[in-house]
Automatic annotation (TrEMBL):
The lineage of its organism: Bacteria, Pseudomonadati, Campylobacterota, Epsilonproteobacteria, Campylobacterales. It comes from Arcobacter porcinus. Its EC number is 3.1.11.6. InterPro entries: Exonuc_VII_S, Exonuc_VII_ssu_sf. This is Exodeoxyribonuclease VII small subunit. The keyword Calcium does not apply. Keywords: Cytoplasm, Exonuclease, Hydrolase, Nuclease. The gene is xseB.
Length: 66
């Protein structure tokens, strides 16, 4: 259960980071180079958050079958 709470916090953190990156990308004064870096960083954050969701789904499904 402790591990699930850690994953939840990590998921929330990743989503918040991705949201912050999106806000930075929305600014007009950002350079193309910075935009590409932020875009790549945002994708990594969202991919990690997606993995956490998939892992949680596996745990949930496994526990419900038992």
């Amino acid at each position: 259960m402790e591990e699930n709470k850690l994953n939840e916090e990590s998921f929330e953190t990743k989503v918040l980071k991705a949201k912050e990156i999106l806000e930075k990308l929305s600014k007009n004064d950002i350079t193309l180079s910075d935009s590409l870096k932020l875009y790549s960083e945002g994708l990594k954050e969202l991919e990690f958050a997606q993995k956490l969701l998939e892992d949680a789904k596996i745990v949930f499904t496994t526990q419900n079958k038992a």
